[in-house]
């Protein structure tokens, strides 16, 4: 069980002015934000991040969405970070997400779903390294 996960506040949530509210929820849930930066993903960077979904029918729309405006990838630390963060954000489709979860409160739909969270420790490690060098992850 690892203590890190990658979160992304997605372009819908940034554009809707929810960045601060979402970061508050994350910190109140006991996560430490060890790296965060507002970036506008290139098409290549978004395609690479979601390469595992390349064959899915929603892939092109997903890449369009993720490059439609700035987003905020964050390296988060907490015990059992991957599972804990997935509970905090709720189901992929906000219509199915539990009350009080970030997606229930801030997401627009199954694609524009406000936040990303890594789905395993292995992917968390890979995804954090996709956005941050080890020097940019600050331990405190
Ligand atoms: P995320 O957790 O970032 O992982 C893959 C993303 O693909 C997901 O959040 C959604 O943004 C998007 N996604 C997943 N399933 C669907 C779907 N059925 N239709 C459209 N977008 C989807």
Write a concise keyword list for the protein shown above:
single chain, Alpha-Beta Plaits, binds adenosine-3',5'-cyclic-monophosphate
Question: Care to give the gist of this entry?
Answer:
By secondary structure, the chain is of the alpha+beta class. The chain is built from seven helices and four strands, in the order E-H-H-E-H-H-E-H-H-E-H. The protein is globular.
Descriptive account of the structure:
The protein has 140 residues and is α+β, with helices and mostly antiparallel strands. It has one domain (4-136): Alpha-Beta Plaits, CATH 3.30.70. It has 7 helices and 4 strands. It has helices spanning 11-15, 19-28, 43-49, 59-66, 81-89, 102-106, 121-131; strands at 4-9, 32-36, 72-77, 115-117. Strands 2-3-1-4 form a 4-stranded antiparallel sheet. The longest helix is centred in the C-terminal third of the chain and has 11 residues, at 121-131. The protein binds adenosine-3',5'-cyclic-monophosphate (CMP). Adenosine-3',5'-cyclic-monophosphate (CMP) binds next to loops.
């Amino acid at each position: 069980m690892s203590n890190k996960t990658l979160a992304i506040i997605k372009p819908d949530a940034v554009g809707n002015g929810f960045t601060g509210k979402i970061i508050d929820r994350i910190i109140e849930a006991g996560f430490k934000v060890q790296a965060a930066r507002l970036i506008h993903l290139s098409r290549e960077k978004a395609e690479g991040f979601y390469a595992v979904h390349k064959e899915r029918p929603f892939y092109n729309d997903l890449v369009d969405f993720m490059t439609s405006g700035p987003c905020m990838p964050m390296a988060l630390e907490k015990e059992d970070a991957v599972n804990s963060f997935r509970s905090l954000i709720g189901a992929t489709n906000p219509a199915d997400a539990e009350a009080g979860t970030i997606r229930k409160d801030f997401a627009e739909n199954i694609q524009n779903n406000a936040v990303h969270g890594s789905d395993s420790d292995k992917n968390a490690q890979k995804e954090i390294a996709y956005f941050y060098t080890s020097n940019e992850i600050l331990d405190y």
